[in-house]
Each structure stands twice: as C-alpha cells, then as structure tokens.
Amino acid sequence: MDDKLYLLVIMGVDDTDRKELLAVVDGVRESEMSGTEVLNQPQFQKLTLPPKLAIGNGALDFWNAITKVWPTTHGKRMNVF
Fold first, then answer.
1. Alpha carbon distance 77, 59 (integer Å)
2. pTM of the model
3. Distance in Å from the first CA to the final CA of the chain
4. What is the DSSP string of 3-38?
5. Helices 32-39 and 60-69 meet at what angle, rounded to 10?
6. pLDDT > 60? residue 81
7. pLDDT tens, 37-66?
8. Angstrom distance (rounded) from CA 4 to CA 51
C-alpha cells in the first residue's frame, strides 16, 4: 500500500453561523488512526456535547473515527468534483 499524506481540516460552525478553524493536521490517507488522533486532541476534548453533524468527503478513515469518538454525531457526505 502506498501511504499518501493528506491534510485534514476541521472547521466548527455554531448556531449563529460563527465559523472557527479547529484543526489543520497532516495524516496518512485512509488511516482511521490519523482521524482518531485528531479528534482526541485537547481542543476537541473540551467539547461538552458532541457535534450534531459532521460533513466531509468520502474518506472512510474520517467516518470511522467520528463513529468511535462521537457515536451520536450524524454524518453527511459532500460531493467533491
């Protein structure tokens, strides 16, 4: 398997449409461990409630990590052309 690096960017949006950059990290593509490591960083540990919705592309590593870290968060896959 060819380990390809990728950039994982996580943005937060609250109910007033205020946006905040929460994380920008590199990882190994299709690695659930990379996604889990990001979601276990201190800034995410401060969340008192899990996000209601996560939106992302089809990267399975991200969705697997979301399911493990925030099992009640709903996912929405966006189409990337």
1. 9
2. 0.67
3. 25
4. --EEEEEEEEE-TT--EEEEEEEEEETT-HHHHHHH
5. 40
6. no
7. 888 876 777 778 888 888 887 777 788 888
8. 28
